[in-house]
Amino acid sequence: MTAQPFTATITGSPRIGPRRELKRATEGYWARRTSRTELESVAANLRRDTWSDLVAAGLDSVPVNTFSYYDQMLDTAVMLGALPARVQPVHDELDRYFAAARGTEDIAPLEMTKWFDTNYHYLVPEISPDTRFTLNPVKVVAELKEALEQGIPARPVVIGPITFLLLSKPVDGAGAPVERIDELIPVYSELLSLLADVGAAWVQLDEPVLVTDISADTPALAERVYTALGSLAKRPAIHVATYFGDPGAALPALARTAVEAIGVDLVAGADTAIASVPELANKTLVAGVVDGRNVWRTDLEAALSRLATLLGSVGTLAVSTSCSTLHVPYSLAFETELDDNLRSWLAFGAEKVHEVVTLARALREGRDAVADEIAASNAAVASRRSDPRLRNEQIRSRIDSILASGAKRGNAAERREQQKARLHLPTLPTTTIGSFPQTPAIRKARAAFRSGEIDEAEYNRRMKAEIADVIALQERLGLDVLVHGEPERNDMVQYFAEQLDGFFATQNGWVQSYGSRCVRPPILYGDVSRPHPMTVEWITYAQSLTDKPVKGMLTGPVTILAWSFVRDDQPLADTAYQIALAIRDETIDLQSAGIAIIQVDEPALRELLPLRRADQDAYLQWAVGAFRLATSGVADSTHIQTHLCYSEFGEVIGAIGELDADATLIEAARSHMEVLDDLNAAGFSNSVGPGVYDIHSPRVPSTEEIANSLRAALRAVPAERLWVNPDCGLKTRTVEEVTASLQNMVAAAAKVRGEAA
Ligand code: GLN
Ligand code: ZN
Fold this sequence. Notes:
The chain has about 750 residues and is of the alpha/beta class. Helix content is about 40%, strand content about 10%.
């Protein structure tokens, strides 16, 4: 191929719109408020603005087809003719696409899961024995043409065949999807030839799966697939992008094929291997030195010297982001409440593009050509290093001394005795996971408070009224351990981040979580400390309304870490311990206020698990350590619970026991309690609350159904270690659904309690 090599690009870009225009347009379309024409014009405008900004900033190759109405894996499934049969009755193409994404009254949507270790979620394609792969290139070709007509040096981006198949799931008795790789090679071949016809000089095939251990033989597979695609007579130059980690043996494997460019994530992965791959000498290495998924400004001096060491080992060196900037907010320009120092440490999407261009220019014209940018970057590095908010010696020495004393609670069996004597709970105690329905009244109060229509006192009064309602409801239902319902929490991480020092909440730092859903992760930039108690007032108010125990509700350190943008200037473990210390102080304050049961949620424990097996033990060690630091400050008579949001524990099953919570409330309804056997096999011996019904569905489970779940649980766990609770928080359900379901749950517990006695 004779395509001109490029020197400055990014892997992909955000698409939801700088002001979330696409969110509004798609949601409007779904609600039939927005016409198809309007939706399409919002989308076309966003694409045009994105591309022209990237060209204006100085990129010489621009990723296209990174726009999506919902998700890029779903786009790929459409492109490969791999939508499930159940959506075929929807005639209109776009509506069929949305049906696969969101479901309709009678069509179940595709399952959704996390995109590697990011907070983006993709739709999982289903591969059945009946799936017939055929090329449907309408979207990618249209976007390519659209960009070329606008004079954009466009590089279409598509998910590669290996990643597509390894992230898909088999259905209807099909074998592993990856076994069908040979059927995809002709489809991708046809695609490449078509893209060449339309005028693409380059194509980018995303293969992030090559940085994982999902399958042992991915390097060999990569070599085979890309040897085949590389040998095509008519095709654009091929750029295979790996990201989120070190491609390891896949790097030399790809380098042995005829592809023209290989992308590596130099922020997450090691670059030592590059010099030892001789075949890279005649390739373009797309060096991801600008962090595409975190918000920190690049240390240009350091990045430049790193790039300089690669120059001798590769044919052409192109500068890029480590991955798509889909994972960071659009631009710092919207943030008006940042102090100058903090602002100087940050780079969002637009600023990262500028960094890429600056580095490419330095490689081309020499360091002096970008002397001003480097000086500004050095000043930011120095300011960040010396800012007192980044080092709180008191916090650090407290953590050291607690860790030195072991951060462990007393013997679990003795704790159980003490808690039993204090709490007087029946066997099979009933409880919930924490949140109650987010009613229209709660949403209205929050909006009114935000807009200044009501003051804080009025807002607090309304929240307390909600708490009183939820307590009264739980008393009526006869639950044993009550919750306050979490009405005051906008989000289980943001609520704490807003009250802790060391965090900054952005005004417009939205990133896509899935479909039209966006989140605004807080930025954890400094040492974390807790200036005042965060939950005590709400919980003690709830407790004052009832004689039943009310649980304190906290989010765990790993989850707060996982759902924030985290500082990159110290090991994650150190940051986790700091958050843990703040949570620990909160548990002690709750205990002093008379609260006897505290739940510390860690739904993200499994999410942060490193992609490579070799790194997982070290992670689990500090993750468990942080949880124990957070929960070991209380007396043995205080009952600590945790909640984890999933049932397939896999690699983390051993860690669940290590957390040493007095009770672990987990999702189990959808897996029919099988998780209990796995826990037993891992030697778990504390109490457990396997969710007895699925809160993700509006269906109200019958008493008998729940009783059967409990009977199944009792075959694996003795009654004195079993709790009765739903799968997860109830905030997405209606009051009617929750009332009916909990009524049946309490009745089922009573029934099974009777049988056991
Ligand atoms: N306590 C939280 C709730 O009930 C837990 C949410 C979660 O597990 N994600 O909403
Ligand atoms: Zn949950």
